[in-house]
Design a protein that fits this description.
- There is one protein chain.
- 32% of the residues lie in helices and 23% in strands.
- By secondary structure, it is α/β, with parallel strands linked by helices.
- The protein is globular and about 65 Å long.
- The N and C termini lie far apart (62 Å).
- The structure holds the ligand NCc1[nH]cc(CCC(=O)O)c1CC(=O)O.
- Residues 8-217 form the Porphobilinogen deaminase N-terminal domain.
- Monomer.
Length: 311
Amino acid sequence: MKKRQAVLKIGTRASPLAMAQAHEARDRLMAAHGLEEHSFQIVPITTTGDTIQDRPLSEAGGKGLFTRELEDALYDGRIDIAVHSSKDMPTELPPGLVLPVFLPREDVRDSFISLSALSIMDLPQGVKFGSSSLRRQALIRRMRPDIDVVMFRGNVQSRLRKLEDGVVSGTMLALAGLRRLKMEHIATAIMPLDSFLPAPGQGAISIEHRENDEKVMRLLAPIHDEETGQALACERAFLGALDGSCRTPIAGHAVIEGERLRFRGLIITPDGTICHEIGAEGRAEEAAAIGLKAGADVREKAGTQFFEGWF
Ligand SMILES: NCc1[nH]cc(CCC(=O)O)c1CC(=O)O
């Protein structure tokens, strides 16, 4: 019997969250086209970012660490699409690749996880808080200058073990990731958007493919979510206007309401002492321009000295 060929090869990182996201993309493709599971082949690929566990990713080479191996696989045809967490995607893509498709966004908020405190304000004086995110570290330091913020990486299981072992008293994870792993129950509290702005792209799954790949574009068209795409265009333009290197703690969140887009963003020094916020509003169609201008505005507000002398 002739072996049936997959219609589309879906590349993903091999981590549990990445696999869950790839399955979500596949489920949406199956539903949109009335195709069976075997039409889509999920191809897990281990990336450099997955193997570095001992230092901040910003030190080890930044966001490209999670994407390079997937992009090589796109170039040589081992995969047709790469499913990513938008948050992990650099603002600039390698030549010949595009990131035009976004699935409907999950909850964008951060969750606080602790076995001993109900909220960040409730943590005892001077305890340790673990996070690898420069944004979360800085925002925590702003709220609680007394707390000892330490570098903290690893998957959900290893983080929980460190909480149990008392290595840290609290940590934070994106609620979206926990939901996708069916682990929302481990969240102790959900951080409010007004005091704890998420990372640009948080909670959104994006799909990268080869430019002008007509077959892929046809298959992906029905699973793209327009509102998420507009919000992400704004947030990624804000990020791009500020920093490609991911060494600046940056937060940004856009919401679409009909034809309108509302955006809030901030930059903050790693020690949490200086924070510049920006709000912007406009037509959703002009999402990228709004984000770009907000980035330029907040950069001007902060002044050049803000970006100097951290390292
Ligand atoms: N950098 C790791 C990463 N990339 C995306 C998510 C969460 C899921 C999402 O934001 O879509 C996470 C983990 C976390 O921040 O908790």
